[in-house]
Hints:
Number of helices: 4
Shape: globular
Structural class: alpha+beta
Oligomer: single chain
Amino acid sequence: MPIEINESDNYVSYPVIRHQAIGEYCRLAVIRWEQRDQLKKDPATEQMTKIPNGKVDRNNNPKFKQELVIHAIVVEGNMTAAIGDQSGVPARGDRVRAILKGKAFGDWIEHRRQHRDGRFLVGDFLDLATTLAQKYDQYGVPKDAEIRDQAVAAAVPRGVTLGFYGTLELLPGTDPQVVAAAEAAYHADAEADRQRNAVQLPAINGGFNDEFGGSQSSEEAFW
């Protein structure tokens, strides 16, 4: 039976798909996702802090910029995924994450409205493509025109900040093997979350043996 995806909590960290070169592409089979506050490092404290979006809620508390973390299985493609100091092109079937923020998050919302009338099933495809690069000055302000040729992007001096961006598309999952793998990962994550949130009961002194006066049984006690 198809599984509809709703927002979920974070479980385990997996490598993150990166836009690193114009012309790269990957297709992911989505397992689940969660929405969270964006964080950045405070240079004064070296601590990660939430990024205000300039708005407040009804209680006058600040709102924060959001991002969507999508957990998925690689179907095909040549995009790089990285976690910590390790990076590489993941193989078919590898677990990865894609983190959408800013325009990419907005594009996801628009595509979701048109995809399956707003429903999304485990194993549906997320296609990502890197289509352009943008140079920035030391203050993070875009400068010069967008770059759409990888040879031009590769020639940008190393000291210049260069960001890569692209497009996304949502498609129904059509590969039964991939859907089955995504559903298995979904259930494994759900079980891991259940175990993590299970109530830890304190040890019981005596147990059944106290109640039944030390009677013996060939079966092992439940606790």
